[in-house]
Design the sequence.
């Protein structure tokens, strides 16, 4: 049962670069707007106006992309030199985003702004614009962009936190898509944003995990403005896994840092598969998918099925419900992956990497199993154990399911978020 809105918050500007499902950040973006709407609070989205953007009455405020080829991810675009210059300038300071904020303020007077995944496309210029207009800003940390040039503590196929020692490391290692030019733009943008003090204009930060909360405090942000609020997921119908064609499931992007390659290698080493198939849902017919398919052929493992990337959450849930368990072999520092919570919501345990925030979420031998990063044999052993131990696997799934209602409920998340919004809205604005 959803609680009604009893706060003074009526309108919330929600800033996110994509207004369509591209990954977990966008699923949260769309879900939290719906949660606000159900409580009588009007969310006002501000995104880039890509071809895949979902329709909304507020689309007239969306920022037109510089590259008009329809591709949303900058890495997939093929800009000319003028467009490259404009993209670099946009990452540092997006004047069009600031203008969009001004127009929204004139027309709708939002009570505050909630910033999600916005860097490079929209840039912290939007934070600056909100501050000048007296709109308090709450910022959710979806990644590690305040420290890391590549946003995810990852380079050259392994975890990396060198940027904590200085952003020059991003140039040395060409951390952003292997490009010195793109790495330079990221370093310049981050350096300018720090110098200009844009993030000092944020009234409060939302850290989805304790790991992220500690990272923000290490950066020097006061514990008084860093609020740890778990992401939420809705419990799904508990269904038994398939018994005639049992399988385990990986779902998500095939980008190397997501670990699909590692998961296949680990599964290929499992000696007693007991007829279990490994399904990987994430084929987007791109370079990453070709790499994964080639690896599957090299491993000569006939028990692997590669399925298309799925944006329909209903079909993702159905795939999870049919699985024995899921795997999340992330090789970068994840924040709070939706894939874990979606598995928990279906009473499915997770086998995942012991890295970053994941051990705080996947309690080892309670909600799943953790393996040591980089140890493929350990990963394989954990998969084999999970396949062989039916009773323990189901028990872990049930405990994970209970955690959704206890620790990751929509009601709990939105209550804490609205309490924070109310606190921020009442506080005096300092530009």
Sequence:
């Amino acid at each position: 049962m959803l609680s009604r809105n009893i706060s003074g918050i009526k309108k919330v500007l929600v800033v996110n670069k994509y207004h369509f499902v591209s990954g977990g950040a966008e699923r949260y973006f769309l879900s939290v707007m719906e949660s606000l709407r159900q409580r009588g609070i009007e969310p006002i989205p501000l995104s880039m106006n890509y071809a895949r953007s979902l329709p909304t009455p507020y689309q007239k405020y969306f920022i037109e992309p510089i590259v008009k080829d329809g591709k949303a991810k900058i890495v997939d675009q093929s800009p000319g030199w003028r467009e490259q210059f404009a993209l670099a300038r946009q990452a540092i300071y997006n004047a069009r985003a600031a203008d969009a904020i001004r127009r929204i303020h004139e027309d709708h007077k939002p009570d505050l702004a909630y910033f999600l995944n916005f860097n490079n496309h929209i840039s912290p210029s939007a934070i600056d614009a909100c501050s000048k207009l007296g709109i308090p800003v709450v910022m959710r940390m979806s990644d590690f962009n305040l420290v890391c040039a590549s946003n995810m503590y990852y380079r050259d196929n392994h975890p990396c936190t060198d940027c904590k020692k200085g952003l020059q490391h991003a140039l040395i290692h060409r951390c952003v898509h292997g490009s010195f030019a793109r790495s330079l733009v990221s370093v310049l943008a981050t350096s300018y944003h720090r110098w200009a003090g844009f993030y000092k204009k944020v009234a409060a930060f939302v850290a989805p995990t304790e790991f992220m909360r500690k990272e923000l405090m290490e950066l020097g942000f006061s514990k008084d403005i860093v609020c740890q609020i778990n992401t939420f997921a809705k419990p799904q119908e508990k269904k038994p896994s398939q018994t005639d064609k049992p399988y385990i499931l990986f779902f998500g992007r095939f980008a190397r840092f997501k670990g699909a390659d590692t998961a296949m290698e680990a599964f290929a080493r499992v000696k007693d598969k007991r007829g279990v198939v490994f399904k990987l849902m994430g084929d987007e017919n791109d370079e990453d998918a070709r790499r994964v398919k080639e690896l599957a052929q090299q491993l000569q493992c006939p028990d692997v099925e590669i399925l298309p990337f799925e944006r329909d959450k209903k079909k993702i849930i159905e795939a999870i419900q049919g699985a024995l368990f899921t795997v999340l072999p992330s090789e970068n520092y994840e924040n709070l992956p939706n894939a874990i919570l979606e598995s928990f919501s279906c009473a499915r345990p997770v086998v995942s990497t012991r890295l970053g925030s994941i051990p705080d979420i996947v309690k080892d031998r309670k909600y799943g199993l953790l393996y040591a990063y980089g140890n493929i044999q350990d990963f394989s052993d954990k998969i084999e154990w999970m396949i062989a131990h039916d009773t323990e696997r189901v028990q872990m799934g049930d405990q994970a399911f209970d955690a959704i209602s206890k620790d990751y409920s929509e009601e709990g998340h939105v209550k804490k978020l609205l309490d924070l919004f109310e606190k921020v809205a009442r506080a005096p604005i300092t530009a």
The two ends are 39 Å apart (CA to CA). The CA atoms of residues 335 and 357 lie 6 Å apart.
